[in-house]
Amino acid sequence: xxxxxxxxxxxxxxxxxxxxxxxxxxxxxxxxxxxxxxxxxxxxxxxxxxxxxxxxxxxxxxxxxxxxxxxxxxxxxxxxxxxxxxxxxxxxxxxxxxxxxxxxxxxxxxxxxxxxxxxxxxxxxxxxxxxxxxxxxxxxxxxxxxxxxxxxxxxxxxxxxxxxxxxxxxxxxxxxxxxxxxxxxxxxxxxxxxxxxxxxxxxxxxxxxxxxxxxxxxxxxxxxxxxxxxxxxxxxxxxxxxxxxxxxxxxxxxxxxxxxxxxxxxxxxxxxxxxxxxxxxxxxxxxxxxxxxxxxxxxxxxxxxxxxxxxxxxxxxxxxxxxxxxxxxxxxxxxxxxxxxxxxxxxx
Length: 348
Ligand code: LMR
Hints:
The chain is of the alpha/beta class. The protein has helices at residues 2-22, 35-38, 57-72, 93-98, 131-138, 141-148, 192-200, 210-218, 229-234, 260-265, 268-301, 313-333, 337-346; strands at residues 44-49, 77-82, 104-105, 155-170, 185-187, 204-206, 224-227, 243-259, 307-310.
């Protein structure tokens, strides 16, 4: 009986030891992580909404960024792009970003000036003369300071992208002399500098969102607009407006923005991937913007009904003089700091 009880106890002890060993109860090592179960391997989706066509400097840069980020994050981040304002337009995309309904947008900085008034500096006509100047300012120290202005509004600023210089396009008559603007209706983006720019010329500024612009031109609610050649071509504005004047008077560029809570929720490694993809996409965008605008100019020249005008140096000087008060307006309204910094950087 004693032998029987001893054998039974020994068997139980051995059995428990075996179970303990096989389940690694005695080991001090950390347990393997079930990444699948904890959701660590779950794909993160960034919804990126913008208002222009895919075949534009912004549309292409968004695609490039999505590809680069998927590669760099080994597929952990998937970027879904919604072009052409199919999800949100100029009037509601910022709110959608702040509500995290989309995680990224890239509005023209002029459209952000109600939120960040200092960015009006980038709208000043004839501040920049070449694409290189634009790149130095937007991609350098000043660009970083301008992006940091977003810290006050809980938005993560990732970069500035470029589209290019704006030209004038009109339906009835070409806009070359200052008098040509008298009493016409010109579309202006919602920026104090841009709206005043046309009022100084005796025109009426009309604020229209990009997605409604074509229809308003077709309905003759707008006589003229300023835009880049890539937007004029890709949106087909040249089908309803046939006079282009190559003025290169102002810059059209973008702030690339991310919802800040979403940004903060990303693990550090993925934040690094986002920044690295953005840096490469941004360099690529500046190069592409130049090429696309010059290719689109060639395509526009081939349209029989399009008349392309240029400004003589004398005429351009008159435009510059007329726009001078905008610089004081900006300084009085916002302050001189950024303007001075940019002028010093550009040696103007
Ligand atoms: C416009 O409204 O004309 C532009 O800002 C559109 C864009 O995003 O390039």
